[in-house]
Amino acid sequence: MLLIYLDEQALSADEREQCYRDSTQLAHQLDVAGQYVAASPLQPASTATSVRVRAGKRVVTDGPFAETKEQLGGYFLIDATDLEEAVAIAARIPMARRGTVEVRPVVHLADLPD
Amino acid sequence: MSATALDAHGAIDAVWRIESARLIAGLTRITGDVGLAEDLAQDALVVALERWPESGVPDNPGAWLMATAKHRAIDQLRRGKMLDRKHEQLGHELDAGRDSALPDLDAAIDDPIGDDLLRLMFIACHPVLSTEARVALTLRLLGGLTTDEIARAFLVPESTVAQRIVRAKRTLREARVPFEVPRGAELTARLASVLEVIYLVFNEGYSATAGDDWVRPELCEDALRLGRILAELVSEEPEVHGLVGLLEIQASRLRARVGPAGDPILLADQDRTRWDQLLVRRGLAALERAEYLAGALGPYALQAAIAACHARARTPEETDWTRITALYDALAQLTQSPVVEVNRAVAYTMAFGPASGLEIADALVSEPALAKYHLLPTVRGDFLAKLGRFEEARAEFERAAALTRNARERDLLRARAAGCARGEP
Q1: Under DSSP, is residue B262 helix (H, G, I), strand (E, B) or coil?
Q2: A32 and B325: CB-CB below 8 Å?
């Protein structure tokens, strides 16, 4: 899982559109190479809803889990053979030049739906 | 000739196209010699031509031909003719004793899972043969085409084709090419040759390199038929499905790409309602199968995927050019072909604007393989004109006009050059 963190205020509307176009291109390139699983940008952190269950009770609050300078802005789920390959792909994500891409291996659970 | 006789001849032609490959394949297995097998199959055809007009076409004409050819084979075995002609090559099948070999013929000639057909494809496309010989032999043995039909399809004299086929059969005999399906790494290498032959046959039908007709659909159908059979026989090989997907989708446009006067209609100008949606669906299904079987797509599957992007778009504007650029990126990397690079440049222009396409095209200017390739200056001219660089564009269109051998195209290019001189794109 490649998690893309960025300062939401850093991009102009035009830059964001360009970023979406470049990211779409990258997604197609990964798909053609058999490395693509899923990807999507996320709405701004201000639209987030955080959910916790405490003492059996659901606690729902507006806003992200943590207020930080960089927020989670989108993700790529890819099929890479090792960390080196994943890092190489992460470096091709347009927002890697402006924010941070966090590479996190996923845990495979056998019985998840397709 | 009576109506029945006419019907019979029509039926014989049709049956021959469908059944001859299986017949020759089974007989090759028994005799170990493609040439002899074809003679036996032809003999059976001659008998059919004599009898069917009177007796009527049998209920199962394929089985009838098979039985007749089998009897001929047995007769020849009995009379020892094959022994004269073949001795050593026949090897153990005859050593086992003629009489005891006979009952096995029934089993030997039946080929329910098509292994013999597959062996025949691999023999006809064997690397000891030249590409022309592979194409001719494949159409003759597997496509059921006559020498005359092959000659007309490729616009070469019949004697040339006949010679190619005779020589090819002799080469196979002398090289003692075994009648078998290669395994492992050899399968992949040999399969590439079979795929190439099918691809060549299709392309010669799809955009003829010679003659007055822009397309010859019969050749496309022959290639498609062979490809479909191959896809059933080696169903685990992704590139076979890639090729079939490509051919199905290309063939879906056959009706739409020729104007009333036989003139070519290019993709963007085609009436998409005339695309054959059944073939499109078959093509997309084949591509899906290739994608399912392969991690990264091979060159045929990539081309099929590009064709699929066009097939899915109901209007030219709906075309997913971003995906097409990604597919061309992969194809260019795989093939290292400068011609693919030119197409990649066009895709980039469509997806991201003329500056991005021009960047790719500019890098090709010093490519020696493209020195006489008129499409490179054509696309560079187009990109430059789109960027408003009319003087450079004009020079490119002039250069392209001087390189093309097609008169219609030359006129179009001159007209565009003149337009650029006036400052119009």
Answers
A1: coil
A2: no
- Cα(B385)–Cα(B416) distance, integer angstroms: 9
Comparing CA positions, the residue from A1, A33, A18, A13 lying closest to residue A95 is A18
Interface contact A66, partner B, CB < 8 A? no
- Minimal CA–CA distance to B329: which of B355, B353, B296? B296
Reported confidence tier of residue B77, pLDDT bands at 50, 70, 90: confident
pLDDT at position B243: 98
Provide the pLDDT confidence category of residue B301 given band limits of 50, 70 and 90.
Answer: very high
Using CA atoms, how far apart are residues B198 and B119, in angstroms rounded to an integer?
Answer: 15
Q: What is the mean pLDDT of residues B255-278?
A: 89
Residue in this structure with the two tokens 């400052």, named with its chain if needed: B423
Q: What is the pTM of this model?
A: 0.79
Chain A interface, best mutation among B300, B303, B329, B333, by max A CB count within 10 A:
B329
Per the CB < 8 A criterion, the answer to whether B233 and B117 are in contact is: yes
**d(CA B344, nearest CA chain A) in Å:** 13
Per the structure block, which two tokens stand in for B24?
């020759």
* CA separation for the pair B381, B396 (Å, rounded): 5
Helix (H, G, I), strand (E, B) or coil at A71: strand
Tokens of B340: 């693919």
Distance of CA B320 to the CA centre of its chain: 27
Residue A81 to chain B, least CA–CA distance (Å): 12
For residues B98-120, give the mean pLDDT. Answer: 61
ipTM over 0.90: no
Q: Do B322 and A34 touch (CB under 8 A)?
A: no
